[in-house]
Predict the structure.
Amino acid sequence: MAEAFKNAYLDVTSSAQTLYTAPASTSSIMITLRITNVDGATDDTITADVVDSASGNSRIAYTISVPADSTIELAGTSKIILEAGDYVQLTGGNASGDLEAYASIVEIT
């Protein structure tokens, strides 16, 4: 069993975008999923879905407020487990791209 450590980054807008997809023949553990609002004046919201390639969406956050100049952690003390083909999709409330997403991932093959 081999492990690879990965990072994923995304400027989040009001259109649903994929942050990370678990590769074929791989299980992945998302250790952290941080959303940072880099706008100094305007709050925003984040919606996050884990899309299971076999069974569909599982919403892990829905329009959670991200205050200006702050960061929230969506993985928390638990971790997000992804099977091959599963992916994490993010949607912000504003089109500005002031939300930045960062994820730390361990891929296991």
